[in-house]
Design goal:
The structure is a homodimer of 442-residue chains. In chain A, 39% of the residues lie in helices and 14% in strands. Chain A is of the alpha/beta class. In chain A, strands 2-8-7-6-5-3-4 form a 7-stranded mixed beta sheet, with helices on both faces. Chains A, B: It is an enzyme of class 2 (transferase).
Chain lengths: 442, 442
Amino acid sequence: MHVFMYLSHWLVLQGLVKRYKDVIDVSSGNPHGMGLKPLTFVRQVLATCFYPPLVHDESLPLDVRQRAQSLLAECDGESIGSYPATYGMKHVRSSVSTFITRRDGVVSDPDNIIISNGSQHALILILKLLVQGRGLQQTGVLTPVPCYRSFNKGLVAQGAVSVPYYLCEEQGWTVQVEELRRALQAARGHCNPMVLYIINPGNPSGHVQSKASIEEVIRFAAEERLFIMADEVYQGCVFGKDSEFYSYKKVLSEMGPPYSTNVELASFHSVSKGFMGESGLRCGYVEMVNLDPQVMRYAYQAFSFNALASVPGQITLDVMLNPPQPGDPSYAVYAQKKINITENGLPGMTCQPINGGIFMFLRLHLSKAAIEHAEEKDLEPDLLYSMRLLEDTGLCVAPGCELRQKQGTHHIRICLATPEEIMEDVLHRLKSFHLRFIKEFP
Amino acid sequence: MHVFMYLSHWLVLQGLVKRYKDVIDVSSGNPHGMGLKPLTFVRQVLATCFYPPLVHDESLPLDVRQRAQSLLAECDGESIGSYPATYGMKHVRSSVSTFITRRDGVVSDPDNIIISNGSQHALILILKLLVQGRGLQQTGVLTPVPCYRSFNKGLVAQGAVSVPYYLCEEQGWTVQVEELRRALQAARGHCNPMVLYIINPGNPSGHVQSKASIEEVIRFAAEERLFIMADEVYQGCVFGKDSEFYSYKKVLSEMGPPYSTNVELASFHSVSKGFMGESGLRCGYVEMVNLDPQVMRYAYQAFSFNALASVPGQITLDVMLNPPQPGDPSYAVYAQKKINITENGLPGMTCQPINGGIFMFLRLHLSKAAIEHAEEKDLEPDLLYSMRLLEDTGLCVAPGCELRQKQGTHHIRICLATPEEIMEDVLHRLKSFHLRFIKEFP
């Protein structure tokens, strides 16, 4: 409802005289849509795979042409136009398992990996396998608050019940086991909570879970026999000084039996997120750990009906997991784009440290006057704020009410995977509007 | 079961001393996998979209560079890495509707078109919408015999009942309304037949339906209130001298009310098939006609969870529907590859005229001795034939028993979308083997 209102408002604005040069849309995680430039190496390799005569084009770096040749050799008929194998190209599934083994220091089996048409598709298919029952027996999925919008929509569409657990903003959006337990017990009155959904690094929170926190969560899942769905698509985007990404697979394996042999886990990754941001190419993977063989069989069946990513998408995944190495001709250009975070010290606005992911989730401390004004207009306060921000400055952000938040708190989400000069403009517009807004509603 | 047996047989052969130079696999419709070369224009446009500096590369034709620029302008941030809109890029949906309007002389509404990750995915999702009930109420789908394998697998996995109707081989694999009626009435004893699945041009039959035949089928569907699923992915592949492709949409529209306003139809098309054969790029579309608004709403919902094709796939579809025109620099090179059919006059083998599609479905008239030999080995006769063909000559074809056929008949399927020199080799191997085989089993 709100989204449509917001969107139609935005569309109306397109036809009005604007007070600003252009609209900047940082409301969603669509990096290329916001002007982030693709990585040259990735695109050169793909262009060469599409048009193999480029293998002889000496204006392209040698490692690009060699990489394209070796990837084409993995395709039937040496063409990316040939059907990929069900569950993903053999070479790509093996690249994923090599990547995971190297990342975790724990062996990964290619047979547990399925390549999909984006990680969201894999999430939905895995969810579907776990959903059953009605009433008290209906599958419940513990879902973080805040959380990006489409997950909850997808979950409900698959017939599951969303069981919210609140991340602790005051402690930097940490996952608290007491809160998981509270949510679980509350849910048992009306459904059968079987799945725990975790996003690490967080969207929109920007929190990166510590190893100790992951261990706690795994112990909790083991006690309560929960299936863990670990959405780890921002794993390549960790930039906090003291933060490090630990995968659920690694921590689970290192905890040893009975955890490492019993806790069921599905972990997701994607080419859409992080510094690469190739969302339009639609490719991701899921690794399944400790799945019941019966469930595994159904998983294979569910993925066999054209959930499969295109060959160019799979090649992009392969290149993401095997970037150029020091000494390679393309290494220098393949500069990992670090997300630039500017501290902001505005009154009436706070932000927890952002250690990973591609979002900033700013808390608005709105005055009574502002909240009453929103109530008069029958709008959530942060939606009103976002609409006014768009109207006054052309800056489009996502209001917290769309991402769920603790009752009585208000937020806005800004995507950080945005070119630096645009980000400066974003912060400038936000700052000048915010100061006017708090002056208007003191 | 048979497939696995066949495949393992094939794999065992890989390790054996072979009597032939290499294996030629014409068993499935994977044109690029079999060495068919991609169309230069398509691949040059895509390479330029991936790596936009190629826009300035004067070794590429001007129309390629202009086309790439105009397609990039349709992407957010002018990058194919940005998220496409749900249901498909606006530009591509509109290109599809323009193509259909031009093809049929009947207006097509872009809102009735959804772009999908391959036409099979769209088929499965539409099927899923129509499947309901158990026992006598379970949705039945009238399905042609012969038919490619994965459709029946997908149909059963979605919880529908496959209701076979036999194409009339003696009359060139035509669809006979009496046979549809027989199949329907027989099915009413055990399920609720609601859907009629048609493949035109046929796979594997190579039959192209006449306008009169389509009218008959539509009248039958109207009487029996069947939802028509028209698989028209081979529409670009009609080469019979007196054959012409008529879409179900066109014929339905021209029949006028009550047909044109009542009969529910979903029509499918794809970049995977025909002379382009870009199966690895995973893109297709469905056009929905006369759908109940309630069903339409569910269709939109079903397609909203990442059934979406990648942007490169969508661009490929756009280029397929808008090929270079006479006078364009790339027109001369964009030579439509015509499928080469060699008449064969072998004893014990017949083939109905092939007017479209990319397959040849050859009938084997096997001797009593051959059939008894197969029975001794507990194999379907055409599976035995195919295994021996592979073993002796390295030629891999699909046995008719895998594609369903009338009891007591035997066939093999060969994909024709194969480079000409390979096709010659295919026919040579087939001929020499066949003559040996009928000598062995007189």
